[in-house]
Amino acid sequence: MRFKNKITHIILILFSLLFLLPLLMIFSGSFENQGQLIENLEPVFNSSNLENKAVWYVIPMYPTLQSYVEILLDSPEFFIMFWNSCKLVFPILMGQLIINTPAAWGFARYDFKGKNILFAMYIILMLMPFQVTMVSNYIVLNYLNLLDTRSGIVLPAIFSTLSVFIMYRFFKGIPEAVTEAAKMDGANELQIFLKIGIPMGAPGIASAMVLGFLEYWNMLEQPLAFLEDKALWPLSLYMPAITPEVTGGYLVSSVIILVPPLLIFLTGQKYLEKGIQASGLKE
Fold this sequence. Notes:
The protein has helices at 2-29, 34-40, 42-45, 66-74, 76-109, 115-127, 130-143, 151-158, 161-172, 176-184, 189-200, 202-217, 221-226, 247-267, 269-279. By secondary structure, the protein is mainly α.
């Protein structure tokens, strides 16, 4: 049995390394000399040269910080787009915290007419990809004069049904006896929500926020569809067209863009795991 466990662990480690290989390639390539990158990837960019194969070194042949200097010191538009991302992501998360948390608590703790139908609509909206609702969103935002504004991205995202669904599962798991005891002690509904619901449902709230950050930090379709002014574009749209001349900058920007989601993921990993487990439970 121990031998089988060891074999299983070895196989899982090998698969993990396989999945990590692209990240390792991006990280190591970001330190490679631009000229060496062009030489290594020449078969990729030159379609007429099909005989040779592209080369990629795990350890850079000629390590340099040139590409990092170009992005961090000589590319002010990079920082503009970084702050654009912050101006989109954090208002979205704050809005979800203020609006979706009470909504999830209401679905979990109260019975009212039409509750099941309304919650079913939430689930349907959660399953719909952005492409399905893009046209209707565009029409509504155009009617409200919110196209080409940050509000046109933030407001629809605030009412995301995924965060409601995740927090609902945690609030639903709070024992009824706890809330009943609070009522007997004279607590009103708001006090129960603030002093019992939020502390006991904190893992679900944190999980929803982590998932929300990972989703909206990397969003592409919404800004492309609703923002024409490139001065408002987030960092996820910074990536230049991949050409030999900008390969180093492309790799460096990929590394930098990856850092905030990675830190958020590592910080909230345990909450994220709980949220995924809760979202997979049947009611």
